[in-house]
Every structure is written in C-alpha cells, then in structure tokens.
Amino acid sequence: MSILRTDITIDSLQQRQRGRLPGLIGFRAVALDQGLMRGELDIRDELLAPNGFLHAATVICLADTACGYGCFAHLPPGAKNFTTIELKSNFMGTAREGTLSVVATGVHLGRSTQVWDATVTGPDGKTTALFRCTQMVLY
Q1: Contacts (Cβ under 8 Å, ≥6 apart) of 7
Q2: Range of the domain at 107
Q3: Using CA atoms, how far apart are residues 54 and 43, in angstroms rounded to an integer?
Q4: pLDDT value of residue 135
Q5: For residue 109, which of 4, 29, 31, 9 has the smallest C-alpha distance?
Q6: What confidence tens digit (pLDDT) does each residue in 47-85 have?
Q7: Is residue 55, in this structure, part of any structural domain at all?
Q8: How many domains does the chain have?
Q9: Which of 25, 36, 71, 78 is least crowded, fewest Cβ atoms below 10 Å from its Cβ?
Q10: Helix, coil or strand: residue 71
Q11: What value does the mean pLDDT take over residues 25-32?
C-alpha cells in the first residue's frame, strides 16, 4: 500500500492546476490525508449544460480531479506520475447553484495501479454522483 507523500500539500496541488482544466473549473483542494482527498467546486453558469442544470462533465471533472490528486499524493517510491485508464460515474441528482463537495477514497493503492472512489455531494447535502476510477502508475 502506498503511503501519503509528505512533499504533496494542498498548496502544491493548487499550484499544479494553474492553467489546467481543474483550475479552469475552479476546483479547490480542501483536505488531504492518508487514503483520502476532499475538494469543492462552486457552481457557476459556465459549468451548466444548455438545459440549465449541472453538466455531467463538470461533476466528472470534480470527481476525477479529487481521485487524481489523491493518487498523485500516494504514488509509490520511484513512481513519476499516473494516468487514468478507466472511470465510471453514476448520477443521482443535479444542481443549478451552490457548492459541490467531493470525498475521494483510495480503495487500492498498489504499485502498478490504484483504484479510487469518490462521492460528490450537492449543496443540499444529498449525493449527486458516485464515481470510480482506475489509475495506472507510471515509472
């Protein structure tokens, strides 16, 4: 099992995303711990679908970013990076305004792959989406 790297911090993750998709959508890393990553995203008009509801890709970006940051912070010794090789998302709700929260949990923190689950919660406190991804560790 991979252990949380001490050189990865909330601030370093925020710096890493500047000019990239997580920064463009406004992802905020709020907590990082062993096997856990929490984040937030304020809903704004640019993140909605043409029907006026939250775009599915916005939710996937939120969940995938949290899982990816969790994976990056738990890379095993000698690993340089990672890439997503599979993801799945189930949607239970939507929103038009407020803040989305995400909690990503490492299910399998191996040397060649990691599996992360994420739960996205809407402003009403209800589950908006369940997400799972598999990451390939790159050496």
Answers
A1: none
A2: 10-138
A3: 8
A4: 98
A5: 4
A6: 999 999 999 999 999 999 999 999 999 999 999 999 999
A7: yes
A8: 1
A9: 78
A10: helix
A11: 98
* Separation CA 46–CA 52 (nearest Å): 10
Is residue 84 included in any domain, yes or no? yes
- Tell me the C-alpha distance between 121 and 45, whole Å: 18
End-to-end CA distance of the chain: 16
- Write a three-state SS string for 6-66: CCCCHHHHHHHCCCCHHHHHCCEEEEEECCEEEEEEECCHHHECCCCCECHHHHHHHHHHH
Domain annotation covers residue 4: no
CATH number of the domain bearing residue 89: 3.10.129.10
Q: Is residue 3 part of a domain?
A: no
What does residue 121 show for φ and ψ, rounded to 5 degrees? -115, 135
* Nearest of 94, 90, 99, 83 to residue 137 by alpha carbon: 83
